[in-house]
Amino acid sequence: MNQGTNRFFIESVELLKMIENHDDLTILDCRFNLQERNEGRELFEESHIPNAQYVDLEKDLSGEVQLHGGRHPLPSIGFLEKMFQEKGVSLETPVVIYDQGKAPVAARLFWILRFLGHSQVFVLQGGYNSWQHSNYPTEKGPAKKAQGNFTARINKEMLALFTDVKEMIETKKGNLIDSREYQRYLGNEEPIDKKAGRIPTALHYFWGDVFEGNRYKTKEQLMQHFQSLSPDEPITVYCGSGVTAAPNVLALLSLGFKHVKLYIGSFSDWISYDDSPVELGE
């Protein structure tokens, strides 16, 4: 598999060859439904890519909700290290991640592993839907026991916190991207959080627009989509809770954008501070 600098995606046929060749790799299934929280694990046990481990968005990739930090806060580094070790992850071994296809969880898992210093992380183009559509082999039942030796090597340049976003607004350096639906960006509706609106100065790039069907768009399409942004300027991406922002982060990194951060707490963290301003309307 070509592991070039901006190579973050893998096709189903490539993954099949790696499995058939018994290549050393870890496969992580992170299918998840925010409305039906047990659905992802149930789908995994019904059918999954051979040798895959299941990773749960809320149990494995999110910490305990507190006053600040948002609705899907980042777990402790120690928790993540132990969890990834139990999924068979090692720094020297490639990791292939998949979710349903047009979904944000694989990108969130991708971001977490890259933030923790893993350099060989790939997202399956088209997700599990693509694998099934190709009639490639599957397994059923719970994941097999695994053990890796993963240890974190934190890349702080990928993470934005509340103070970073506040400073970004005050200094007017870089671009802030809101990944939520347009009506939430405008503040016309807010189905989840206690306050409507957006973080001041934010531009709107809906997370679903980086997909075509179940696949991430081509490099040319993504370059056109993000044409008003400079690859050399700092970019911080947010959504409601640090999940649906992740596909925008992955898409930008795949284009070679150099300074892309995920505001992990996102809008739900921003409004947890009572004096945080919001903007409404166009």
From TrEMBL:
Residue ranges constituting the Rhodanese domain according to the UniProt record: 21-140, 170-279
SUPFAM superfamilies: Rhodanese/Cell cycle control phosphatase
Molecular function terms, GO-annotated: thiosulfate-cyanide sulfurtransferase activity
Keywords attached to this entry: Pyruvate, Repeat, Transferase
Signal peptide: none
The name this protein goes by in its record: Thiosulfate/3-mercaptopyruvate sulfurtransferase
Organism of provenance: Bacillus oleivorans
